[in-house]
Write the structure tokens for this entry.
Amino acid sequence: MPSHSRAARRALLAVTSAIAVALAATGCADFSQEDQAADQGSFTAPPTMERAPQQAPQPPSDDQGGGPPPTGPCVDPDPAVIATCLASTGGVRPADPSGRTTYVAERTTGKIILSKRYGPQRVVASVDVDGSGDGGLIDFEMSPTYVEDQMIYALVTTGSDNRVVRIAPTGSVKPILTGIPKGATGNMGSISFASPTELVVATGDAGDPAAASDRGSLAGKIFSIDPNVADPKPDIRATGLGSDVALCPSPGADGQLFVADSGAAGDRLSLVGPKGLQTLWTWPDRPGVSGCAVGDSWIAVSVAGAKRIDTFIRPANGSLTVGRPNPQDFSKTYGAVGRMTALGGQATQLATVNKATSGAPVKSYDDRVAIYMPKAGEDLT
């Protein structure tokens, strides 16, 4: 997606976040109401994305206007941290062009939370999910025309399947695409808008590698759908994905799309090409890749199992060379990092998954969202 489109969407989110509706999460999931909903927002022709200038993120600081920082059990002294005391996280998205405000999914509770440093957290949407295993509220995207329709799209796990749903500002939830296989593991996937009429969906293999290679199954695939029509037909772009599948689109106008996943041969970083996946790097020791983000000159891959982020030199168009990664150890700071999202091509927001990975937080105020400035690795060419 072009950088100006992403910047426009994020700038508009900042303006409209004050009017987003806070919804209370329910304790027991009942998906029958979803499937029987008759009218939860009509399908209409989507307006064109607007454009806005992009604001470059600045290094994190703790300038609070001269006043003392607040105190309490959920205050992290790290100035890069913008959300604390979260349940285990799923997707994360900037809520303003600078990234100082964030939307983050709590995978196990089904809540999408708006947060900024030292600010109150507010639930802006909620959906019933099955949060067992690695399922739940897996990922989400604001509508490309969120300022107009306030719609949120999400990839979620129910009691019977994984599915793409649309959450209206009233809180009603409409299934868009159902029947994505669900498993005890291998549910983690990703969604990303390429245009107002193209939502790219990446799914895990649901614990069944054979299904990932079967074009008749939606497990372990990258495909696109038009979310504005009833019963959209998936256009499959890649097969054979494993678990912990994370899309990382380019912030520039080149339209490059990368993906990280843990497959049968190990963890890997790939470029999504016109004929499937083109492998850029592999981790045969399977350290646990869990997310990725792409900047102007780098690709950062979070490795939750090893509690680090590996950053590569981003390849030029037509090249598959990323060099040797530059590893950043987070074992004593953020711990296990899950999903990430790029900020203006220079920085990224990251969400920790310490509660899911080890069952215990690295810090008392886990799980968290923070701003991180990646540094690329070594060029081997």
Q: What stands out?
A: The radius of gyration is 19 Å. Residues 3-24+79-372 form a domain with the Neuraminidase fold (CATH 2.120.10.30). The chain has one domain: 3-24+79-372. Helices lie at 3-16, 32-36, 146-149, 209-213, 354-357.
